[in-house]
């Protein structure tokens, strides 16, 4: 039964899975989680504060999970919309803090 359908960052998944005994999950998360849960929450709040209707919740989660460092990497996340250079640079500036 699905109780809630909310996208989660890998940092949040890691927090939820910390008590699981499945070593494969822990190895995967250890390899791919790049931020702490606290930083993920702060970063997502800053991106939401841009109040850009082009940026969907799924995009925010992908940004936090991948932490793109340049416009080319960021554009790989936004396949369905085109961000202006100013919009992209604003996101990159936020991401570089984390």
For this structure, the quaternary state is single chain
Return residue spans where pLDDT drops below 50 for at least 5 consecutive residues.
Answer: none
Helix content bin: 55-70%
Biggest sheet: strands, sense, closure? none
β-sheet strand percentage: under 5%
| Class computed from helices, strands and strand pairing | mainly alpha
Supply the number of helical segments: 6
Arithmetic mean pLDDT: 93
Pattern of helices and strands: HHHHHH
Total strands: the figure is 0
- Radius of gyration, in Å, reads 14 Å
Number of domains: 1
Distance between the termini: 35 Å
What is the general shape? globular
Describe the structure.
With 98 residues, the chain is mainly α. It has one domain (10-96). Helices cover 60% and strands 0% of the residues. It has 6 helices and no strands. It is globular and about 45 Å long. The chain starts with 9 loop residues before the first helix and ends with a helix. 15% of the residues are buried. The model has no long low-confidence stretch (mean pLDDT 93).
């Amino acid at each position: 039964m699905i109780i809630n359908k909310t996208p989660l960052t890998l940092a949040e998944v890691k927090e939820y899975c910390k008590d699981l005994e499945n070593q494969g999950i822990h190895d995967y998360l250890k390899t791919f989680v790049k931020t702490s849960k606290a930083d993920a929450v702060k970063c997502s709040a800053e991106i939401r504060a841009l109040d850009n209707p082009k940026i969907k919740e799924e995009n925010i989660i992908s940004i936090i999970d991948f932490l793109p460092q340049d416009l080319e990497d960021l554009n790989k996340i936004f396949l369905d919309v085109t961000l202006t250079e100013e919009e992209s640079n604003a996101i990159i500036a936020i991401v570089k803090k984390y």
